[in-house]
Amino acid sequence: MEVVVRPCKPEASWLAARLIAAAIRAKPSLVLGLATGRTMERLYAKLVQMHREEGLDFSLVRTFNLDEYIGLPPEDPNAYRYYMNHHLFDHINIDKRNTHLPEGMTDDEAGEGARYEAEMREAGGIDLQLLGIGRAGHIGFNEPLSALQSRTRAKALTPMTIAENSGEFTDPARMPRRAITMGVGTILEAKRLLVLVTGESKAEILAKAVEGPITSMVSATAIQLHPNVQVICDNEAASNLSGREYYEWIFENEPEWQEYR
């Protein structure tokens, strides 16, 4: 695992966007796993900017989102399909037939998980999975006690997650209590993980995720098991990291980071 600390949210988001852009340029048919939430909005704006100003080409890219709320149709402003269209897909040259999310309106939740897993396998697996970390320590909607080998499935949301996300709803009471999410095991099968975490409110959980013991109570700790992980954070989110001095030394001295300094 590599942890990179940038001075502020915009610089952290810009670095994450540049890493994604480099992966797309290296493999135009990249299979890209995507995340949602406020942290990702700035990153997606940067990708849109690179598409418009630098010609970043998404025409062959295929995407799979981590999760979707159960009970929200795609056109609902709080559905993650709507979010992705609004923040990214409508502004780049991606073929929307190549953009995939779990079906939140399914009548067969178990079958939907299996269907989504099959779609990812048919695409050859995720090349690069973008992740955030929720305040409850979840990646995707893998809430506490999610098995580290879990697969895509329906999952009940914790009160903390509901409180954290309900602010996005005009009527917080409309916040769904359940979602379909990639499992922890599914996420760990991606060839590469890119984790973007910003803000003081994430400092405690980020330290647990990257430096604490691996536990199903904090599903984000499972990223420690992956052989190819880059964690990008800002100063505020990094404030509890005990190894920060070393992480900063790596960024300033390792050749792989030279073009990003």
How would you describe this protein?
By secondary structure, the chain is α/β, with parallel strands linked by helices. The protein has one domain (2-256): 3-Layer(aba) Sandwich (Rossmann fold), CATH 3.40.50. Helices cover 34% and strands 16% of the residues. The chain contains eight helices and ten strands. Strands 1-10-9-6-2-3-5 form a seven-stranded parallel β-sheet. The protein has a three-stranded antiparallel β-sheet with strand order 4-8-7. α7 links the parallel β9 (193-197) and β10 (229-234). α1 packs across α2. The longest helix has 18 residues, at 9-26. The protein starts with a strand and ends in an 8-residue tail after the last helix.
Q: Estimate the strand proportion.
A: 15-25%
CATH topology tier name: Rossmann fold
Count structural domains.
1
Distance between the termini: 19 Å
Total strand count, please? Answer: 10
Number of helices: 8
Shape: globular
User: What is the mean pLDDT?
Assistant: 97
Rg, nearest Å: 17 Å
Secondary-structure-based class equals: alpha/beta
Instruction: Please identify the top-level CATH class.
Output: Alpha Beta
Question: How are the strands of the largest sheet arranged?
Answer: 1-10-9-6-2-3-5
> In CATH terms, what is the architecture?
3-Layer(aba) Sandwich
Order of helices and strands: EHEHEEHEHEEHEHEHEH
Q: What proportion of the residues is helical, as a percent range? A: 25-40%
Main beta sheet strand tally, sense and closure: 7 strands, parallel
- Spans where pLDDT lies below 50 across 5 or more residues: none
